[in-house]
User: Fold this.
Amino acid sequence: MSAETVRSSGSFAIGVLRVEPGSDEQVRREARLVLALHAHAQGHFLLDVVEVSGAGSDPGYATAEQLAARADAQAFVISGDVDLSRLRMVADRVRMTIKRVASRWPG
Assistant:
């Protein structure tokens, strides 16, 4: 399968995930998987997931912006209590949409 075929089957997205401080690795892995499944269900290929604290000053937001700009991603797929005002500013700058997912994968 060529790269052209993969790219045309959906669009790229960057995951932004808020996980409670002190969460163990299993909880973080499950949250990342749920985020990836939701992104796929919405027609996105999730390139990476950036974990952030709730605060807009978290450097993870800048990391998400840099990834999005380099990858020409179309959406941020988010889960948890992220700083939406900060993320909206980033999305406006790099011309992306924001899509929130449910906390659990249905089924």
